[in-house]
Amino acid sequence: MNIPIKTDISTSSRVLAGKVALVTGSTSGIGLGIARALAAAGADIVLNGLGVAGEIGRTREQLSAEFGIKVSYSPADMTRPKEIAEMIAATVAGSGRLDILVNNAGIQHVAPLDQFPVEKWDQILAINLSSAFHTTRLALPAMRHNGFGRIINIASTHGLVGSPFKAAYVTAKHGIVGLTRVTALETAEQGITCNAICPGYVNTPLVEAQIDAQARAHGISRDEVIRDVLLAQQPNKRFVKTEELGALAVFLSTSAAATITGIALPVDGGWTAH
Ligand code: NAD
Q1: Where are the alpha helices (DSSP H) in 113-241?
Q2: From the candidates 73, 169, 201, 271, which is the catalytic residue?
């Protein structure tokens, strides 16, 4: 006997139509890939990040024309809580809602612990961790008001395991996994979920800088750096694709993922299976 089950789980390609998504650090790399995937799923997008005004303007036009959605941009610097507050206030004032918050902005610096520049430590903690605290605390009232919210924190495999010479980055990423769990627990009855995505290596400008620096430091080729240094721990021996992370962010934003909250999901080709 077939028992009809009532469900609002949608699998349509415009599954996020009518939603508003803010992606920090979305002028490049993973953030831009996630913004694109959310736009393709029908969400209006608020871009954020550093960059050249003309290029950002072109990205806005392209996304808007390709997917028929609204795209705005906030230049808020993620080291500045006041600018973060203005970004969230402008988003909610502009559309009356903020449904999906992707905390993605991040930077890297590689140095031994006893030589780690203090100002780099402060900057990485501010951008990679504290900015997510500020966006989250400021976005929650609008999400609670609508009884719906999706907070997706882009952590890293380095939120789950350490690597030498990345003290600030590994600390910030472990911190954001902790913030994810607390946020999930505090919002669990309010239609809001909070999850962390933990990618292995993705070939973006952030990683490009490491490839060149490592090649110079070890006197080896770029291919050798990619295979023997970066992907040494990544068993599938290829970079994660931004499209794969975008598709996951869309899934976590749908009603199908309503009971997935508080997780730190590795997307790392088996790195953390070691
Ligand atoms: P990226 O350099 O391509 O992009 C970083 C984004 O953050 C850019 O849009 C940049 O403008 C923005 N940004 C930097 N400083 C900012 C500031 N002060 N205020 C506002 N925006 C700022 O790097 P990516 O590889 O796409 O990294 C995105 C996120 O993914 C980061 O949090 C990173 O730690 C994480 N991550 C990256 C990898 C990887 O292998 N590339 C792996 C795991 C996690």
Answers
A1: 118-125, 131-146, 167-187, 205-218, 222-224
A2: 169
Structural domains of the chain in order of their starting residue, each with its CATH number: 14-201+241-273 (3.40.50.720), 203-239 (no CATH)
Q: Per residue of the chain (274 residues), what is the pLDDT tens digit?
A: 566 666 677 767 899 999 999 999 999 999 999 999 999 999 999 999 999 999 999 999 999 999 999 999 999 999 999 999 999 999 999 989 999 999 999 999 999 999 999 999 999 999 999 999 999 999 999 999 999 999 999 999 999 999 999 999 999 999 999 999 999 999 999 999 999 999 999 999 989 988 998 899 889 999 999 999 999 999 999 999 999 999 999 999 999 999 999 999 999 999 999 9
Nearest 5 degrees, angle CA 167-CA 173-CA 256? 165
Q: How many A from CA of 206 to the centre of ligand 1? A: 6
**Does the annotation count 201 as an active-site position?**
no
Question: Could you identify the atom of ligand 1 that is nearest to the CA of residue 240?
Answer: 40
> What pTM was estimated for this model as a whole?
0.96
Instruction: Tell me the best of 23, 74, 104 to mutate to test the pocket of ligand 1, counting ligand atoms within 8 Å of each CB and taking the most.
Output: 104
Give the HSE-up count for residue 120: Cα atoms under 13 Å, Cβ half-sphere: 16
